[in-house]
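Structure request: DNA replication complex GINS protein PSF1, Fregata magnificens.
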Amino acid sequence: SEAKSGRTDLIFLIRFRHCCLLRNQRCILAYLYDRLLRIRALRWEYGSVLPNTIQFHMSAEEVEWFNRYKKSLATYMRSVGGEEGLDLTQDIKPPKSLYIEVRCLRDYGEFEIDDGTTVLLKKNSQHFLPRWKCEQLIRQGVLEHILS
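Returned structure:
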């Protein structure tokens, strides 16, 4: 109000304050955008269920955003690959072989393969399974890829 009444020496301070506020706003938006990119990358790395240690460090709004992104990605994957859909989260790195040897790190229960065979995944048991069926369980920490 004093600047409007004729004190021109305050105009510089008002402009400087406004520039500082705009800079702070840009910094905050850049930080939030980077955080969203990292949360989106978590979906591709860990799958649809995040470990509690990671979820503990996320705000409620970030968890909500993750869940909406997860649903949106699932809807898209179902619409792309015909009847069964197409799982884009598998084979993030090109496979060297179709079957891999895995060790079960914790009791999981029965696991069915496409040919109808069921495998009982018990702690410390080792199996030779198709890579694409195991990749999600490896990311979740149920299985461990044994490198020979």
